[in-house]
Structures are given as structure tokens and as C-alpha cells.
Design goal:
Length: about 375
């Protein structure tokens, strides 16, 4: 029976918290490993272990009595996961899959080896190495590891910017002339069954590289959306994925699709599936890793998801703003319960549902005014 399975998550953030809440519907007990004793997941489980998911010893100790292990972050210890696999534990996604995606340059090479179009880029070891590629500027510099929510990304416009560049292994990518940004969430189980959610359109906030809002389904040409879905399915098969994968893509000005990045876990661009889809991305992940049939990915209605970032304006009158938000018909608030006040970080999100995208956008503008 499912309730007898011992399942663990590496990482204790909001993604893990939402996964646990869906696991409760299946009667599952979830254990969590995170280095922060106040991580959002801590409130959702009585089996919370304080330790770094990057630590070999911590991951090995955490997993020794578990049956199935999954992740909500890429920064995990691969060697420990491989050892746990040898001990008979099921690890999904597989350590090899996680390792490919952990490093942005390795990820890019893998995609190219499977004829997946990507943004052209060069591997650089640090600041000094960048001087060899001055002729390729302007460009986008990304840390090869541990980048998220805009952290680890910067634009280098001229050689003068090299002095302030990251001094560690990075990828220097061409600046692509982008028309749109898309994401496709794809699920795959051990039997090779694959299901995709409808592509969503993402809009990012300026040079912060943090997702501002996302519309589902993406209001774009049918041919582009079909091609994006085919690419996502192809990548999931190439990785031999078991779990879910977010495939972020650029649509160029000449309507070409380029894969930007992969995330082998629940993703910001799939939050809307909780309210708007028959099967949420979190339930789908559980289905995939537990050998259950994959669920229906169809949308009930259009939606728009907005991140809530920590700001002085929000902190000044949080309770009143929350009441105003919840007074809007079709607005679904998710508050992550993060401790402390660090400006700019994600502290929650709102999914707005409605009968038409036009009516949803009107509500979104009202919400934006409330938050600001």
C-alpha cells in the first residue's frame, strides 16, 4: 500500500511544501532534508532532518531507511544518491539525470548531442578566461551551477563589464533576440509513458531575471506550441526521465525555438496547475515516481500566475494587502511561510483563474497595484 512507502525529498523549500500537501491526499508520509531548520517544509512533516542536501554523509544517513527519494532542488549530492541506489533505494529523477542538469554547460552539451536547439554558448573558467571571448560581447553570463531566480545570471555589455563578472566557472551565451519565453512541464514514468502540460508564456521582470507573471495556456501560434511540446517530450525521453521536467525555451524574432534551461523537479511555471489543471504538477510527480498512471494534464480554464516578492511596500501593511487580494474573485493565494525579511525573494504566488484571459488580465492589474 502507498501509505507504507517511506518517501524522502531533498530540499525543504516551497516546492517541497506543495508536494507534501499533495502527498497527504494519497495518504503518504514524507521525510525532508534541508539545512535550514526553519525551511517552509518543516511545518508540513514530522519527519524533518536538518542537514545539507549537498553533504554526502547527510544524504546517505537521510536515505538509509527510505524507499523512494526525489528532489525539489538540483544542488544535491550525486555520489550519495548513487550509493543509495546501490542499496536498493529508488531515486527519481536518476542521479545521472540530475548530474547532467546540475551543470549548465554539461546540460547544453547533452541537448546538442540529441539535436536539440540551444542558445550558443562557451564554457569559461572565470574572469581571466572571459577576455578570450571579448569579441562575443554583449552576452549573458551564467554560473554553471546553483543559479536560480535570477541569482547567478548577468549581462556583459562590453569588455568593461568583465571586471565585475562572476569569477568562477560559467557559460557565456549569445544574447538572443527574443520574442517570447515559454515553459513546458513534461512528466515521464518508469514505463516510458509521457504527458505534457500545455506550454505557458513567461514574462520576466527587467534585468532581475525573476518570473513576473505567466499565462496558461500561452496565447501564441499553434505551430510554435506544438513544436515546444514535441521538444519537451524528446528531451524527457533522451534523459530517460522518471519524474517531471520543466523545459524553458526562447521563441526568437524569426520564430525559432531554442531551449534555455532545464529543471528536473516541480517548477515555478507549473504552479498554476494546482487550480487550473485536472492533475497538478505535484500530483503528477508523485504518480511518476510511485509507478502510478500519469494523470490528465488538461486545463479546466485559463489562468495567470504572479509571483509575490518581498518588498518594503508588502512589509509595511501585509495583513491589509492579503485581505484585499483575497477579496478578488478567482484569486488563489499561496503563502510560503518563509522566515525573515530578505527583499526581492519569492514569498508566495497568486494564481488567477477565470473564463477568459482578458478578464484575468484585468484582475492581475488590480493585484499588481495592491502589491506595489
Amino acid at each position: 500500500m502507498l501509505e507504507n512507502l517511506k518517501i524522502g525529498i531533498l530540499g525543504g523549500g516551497q516546492l517541497g511544501g506543495m508536494l507534501i500537501r499533495h502527498a497527504i491526499d494519497f495518504g503518504l508520509n514524507i521525510s525532508v532534508l534541508d539545512k535550514d531548520a526553519n525551511a517552509p517544509c518543516a511545518r508540513y512533516t514530522s519527519s524533518f532532518s536538518c542537514g545539507a542536501p549537498t553533504s554526502y554523509e547527510a544524504v546517505l544517513e537521510f536515505g538509509k531507511d527510505l524507499d523512494v527519494i526525489t528532489i525539489e532542488m538540483e544542488a544535491v549530492n550525486i555520489d550519495a544518491l548513487r550509493e543509495l541506489e546501490k542499496q536498493g533505494k529508488k531515486v527519481f529523477p536518476a542521479p545521472d539525470t540530475i548530474q547532467v542538469i546540475q551543470d549548465k554547460f554539461t546540460q547544453k552539451q547533452f541537448l546538442l548531442s540529441h539535436n536539440i536547439p540551444v542558445v550558443p554558448g562557451e564554457a569559461v573558467e572565470g574572469k581571466n578566461d572571459l577576455h578570450k571571448y571579448e569579441h562575443k560581447l554583449p552576452g549573458c553570463l551564467k554560473k554553471r551551477r546553483n543559479g536560480y531566480d535570477g541569482y547567478g545570471v548577468m549581462v556583459l555589455k562590453t569588455s568593461a563589464d568583465i571586471d565585475t563578472a562572476f569569477d568562477e566557472p560559467c557559460v557565456l551565451e549569445e544574447l538572443v533576440d527574443i520574442k517570447h519565453e515559454l515553459s513546458v512541464i513534461v512528466a515521464r514514468n518508469e514505463h516510458g509513458a509521457v504527458k505534457c502540460y500545455d506550454p505557458v508564456k513567461m514574462v520576466f521582470s527587467g534585468e532581475k531575471f525573476v518570473l513576473d507573471f505567466q499565462e496558461a495556456p500561452a496565447q501564441l501560434e499553434e505551430g510554435i506550441l506544438k513544436e515546444a511540446t514535441v521538444l519537451a517530450e524528446k528531451i524527457a525521453d533522451a534523459l530517460k526521465l522518471v519524474g517531471i521536467l520543466a523545459v524553458e525555451m526562447f521563441v526568437t524574432k524569426d520564430n525559432k525555438l531554442l531551449v534555455n534551461e532545464l529543471a528536473p523537479r516541480p517548477h515555478n511555471s507549473g504552479h498554476h496547475t494546482i487550480e487550473a489543471s485536472t492533475t497538478s504538477q505535484y500530483e503528477q510527480l508523485l504518480r511518476a515516481i510511485l509507478g502510478l498512471p500519469l494523470g490528465d494534464t488538461s486545463l479546466h480554464f485559463p489562468s495567470l500566475m504572479m509571483n509575490i516578492l518581498e518588498t518594503d511596500a508588502l512589509n509595511s501593511n501585509r495583513q491589509e494587502k492579503v485581505q484585499q487580494l483575497l477579496d478578488i474573485d478567482g484569486a488563489h493565494l499561496h503563502w510560503y511561510g518563509k522566515k525573515g525579511n530578505r527583499l526581492g525573494r519569492k514569498v508566495g504566488h497568486i494564481t488567477i483563474t477565470g473564463s477568459t484571459m482578458e478578464s484575468i488580465v484585468v484582475k492581475a492589474e488590480t493585484i499588481r497595484k495592491i502589491l506595489n
